[in-house]
Amino acid sequence: MKSKLDINLTRGLKPITNTFSHGMKFHLWTIGCQMNIADSERMGSALTQLGLSPTNSAEEADVIVLNSCVVRQSAEDKVTGQLTSMKPLKNSSARIIALMGCMVGPDTKLLKKKFPYVDVFMRPQEYDPLIELVGERIGIDPAGCIGQLLPAIDTTAYIPIIHGCDLFCSFCIIPYRRGRQVSKEIDEIAHEAQMLSQRGVKEITLLGQTVDAYGHDLEKQVDLSDLLYKLDGIDGLERIRFLTSHPQFMSERIIDAVATLPKVCENINLPIQAGDDNILKSMRRTYSIDEYRNLIDRIRSKINHVSITTDIIVGFCGETKEQFQNTLKIVEEIQFDKVHIAAYSTREGTIAFRKQVDDVPLSEKKLRVKELETLQQEISTRINSKYLDSTEKVLIDGHERGKWKGRTRTDKLVFVDSDESDLNGKTKNVKITDTGPWSLKGIII
Ligand code: SF4
Q1: Among protein residues, the one whose CA lies closest to atom 5 of ligand 1
Q2: Total-model pTM
Q3: What dotted CATH number matches 5-144?
Q4: How many CB atoms lie within 10 A of CB 420?
Q5: Which of 169, 231, 275, 398 could form a disulfide with 330 if both were Cys (CB 3.0 to 4.6 A apart)?
Q6: How many Cβ atoms sit within 10 Å of the Cβ of residue 216?
């Protein structure tokens, strides 16, 4: 899953002002993938239910929460920098500093030694330690005050449906930090989606590290397609998306559900990671290039106008120039709508760290990233140019630099010229007037 976001999540969280009079504030800083954003939204929901108000300023906050990511060294370095900059703020014993997310493993001894001024360490999806500590400070029993943890209401919302991962790809730290795969019960997810829809959410994105493995660990025999059928029946909800999928679990049942259910969007993120069978093997990916190619063919033959995005790591241990050329070839052949590209960096604790050698020089990795980016830019430009003059249904979810913005069902970002004062949450027919590799432009018709 991508790790490109570095956001402050205090926006849009509204305090429950009349319930408590303590006047406390919280600051919530988040880095990492959509799973982390979803966790932060739920943490923010708990704190607002306890009567705390969000603030963008850490200096002003009584409770500071950092939600961490360690998927790449650069992300971990940013968290460490942020944590270090919090040290002077621990000038008052009343201020609470909490660290949550993937930096917190099962054993927190080392973290406690390195950051003694941090009061609470919480693993992903673990909210109770901070909730209880804040409850103690304000003198209430949180159990009686906190209802369901829901994200701040917006046009779109994330719902984590499966946590952890069982696969242990050799480059990945996630299974060690987020643990083994655990799916939520189908009724619990449906209830959450129903509540979000009743509060005005139009689009939900179901999240998991291997989202298409949903249900495989549950006693009841259900899978992602069963969940999609159930959610498709929720009134008011207009769109359903899911990510990130793994080629091993993308079944015909799921493909059929995407092809037939009206609310499920025609967009699939299916990480290939490399274009060479030997590299895939050393990454411990569980498919060959031929199997991946066949899967894409099946998806395209069943789902009309589907857009397919992927993730690729370049410069993995031992990747030769020829093996990288195979990656370029498969990208050219498949014509992905979008590729998230990362240069390999070793993560302590992974199988690759223990058993393989990170032997592609950084300068070579950077060249490979550049070459792949250039190729993908040409491909995305070509694919997006086909949208010119077409009419697309765009769900508007924000306003940026004087234009409304939203997405097509195929997840294309569209900027819309309009004088209307509030289009947020509305689905409009938009005629596409301009296209580029990263976004489209259009006018409402
Ligand atoms: S499928 Fe592989 S890359 Fe994805 S979370 Fe699991 S171990 Fe990591």
Answers
A1: 209
A2: 0.88
A3: 3.40.50.12160
A4: 11
A5: 275
A6: 16
